[in-house]
Design goal:
Layout (H helix, E strand, L loop, with lengths): L1 E10 L2 E11 L4 E5 L6 H8 L7 E6 L2 E2 L4 H5 L2 E4 L11 H11 L6 H13 L15 H13 L5 E5 L7 H16 L3 E5 L3 H7 L2 E6 L2 E6 L1 H8 L6 H9 L12
Helix pairs in contact: 3-4, 8-9
Length: 251
């Protein structure tokens, strides 16, 4: 469902992502971790077509994101870590705008879909209120609703739980599990060890632009030559961050 082949990105002499190869099949929630500045956000921006790779290719459901961007984005949902929202329109108008971008037919079916998403994300009573009046958590839920509006086959998420209260975070976790059960491939970058550990079947760790480890928790233990049960100490051993005060932020 997601195929990344020999992906590289250079900014001048700086090699941000090096020879990245990865496969995410349908129905998997995949976690993507790395220290500050490791190349996570650069990778995601290439995956969704915001920047072009220096070399290598990204395929979304068989479509090359660089060569067939419209076809790839038709089956792709993206939830950025710092989403931009138009504040002078209502939440419902924002979803209508996104529906127009995806070329969804207007009519009862579209209105039903928008209504269902507003209800699911507890935004029904706020659908006709201006986005400027939304809390941070409400804005995040609106962005997730927009990303799912066209029923994508692939979801790419950068820090999904940012700004969500415990109820909202639990709702999103449950949603991701249900979507994966229905065959969606979910690629999730996060700085939260707990989120990755609890939600992801496999985890990839990037460090200094290179994918240094990928696999289940058991496979990561083998790679780290460790018996640690938790992800954090495994991450520290694999990235050489033990005792160095690693910052758990996106890079």
């Amino acid at each position: 469902m997601i195929a990344i082949d020999s992906l590289n990105k250079k900014f001048g002499n700086f090699h941000a992502v090096r020879d990245l190869d990865l496969r995410i099949p349908p129905g998997e929630v995949f976690g993507f971790l790395g220290p500050n500045g490791a190349g996570k956000t650069t990778t995601i921006r290439m995956m969704v077509g915001l920047i072009k790779p220096t070399s290598g290719r990204v395929f979304i459901d068989g479509q090359d994101i660089s060569r067939q961007p419209e076809e790839a984005k038709a089956v792709l949902g993206f939830i950025p870590d710092r989403p931009y929202l138009y504040e002078k329109i209502t939440g419902r108008e924002f979803l209508e705008f996104i529906a127009d971008l995806h070329g969804l037919d207007s009519g009862d079916k579209r209105q039903k879909r928008i209504g269902e998403l507003l209800i699911f994300f507890d935004l029904e009573d706020w659908g006709r209120e201006l986005v400027e009046s939304y809390s941070h958590g409400m804005r995040q839920r609106l962005i997730i609703a927009a990303a799912l509006l066209h029923r994508p086959k692939v979801l790419i998420v950068d820090e999904p739980m940012v700004g969500l209260d415990p109820k909202g975070a639990r709702l999103v976790k449950r949603l991701f599990f249900e979507l994966a059960k229905k065959g969606m491939a979910i690629f999730m970058s996060t700085h939260s060890m707990e989120v990755a550990e609890n939600m992801c079947r496999r985890i990839g760790i990037i460090n200094e632009g290179r994918l240094i480890a990928v696999g289940t928790m058991e496979e990561l233990r083998e790679k780290a030559q460790s018996t640690d049960e938790r992800l954090e100490p495994l991450f520290l051993k694999l990235t050489g961050g033990e005792g160095e005060g690693v910052e758990w932020e996106h890079g």
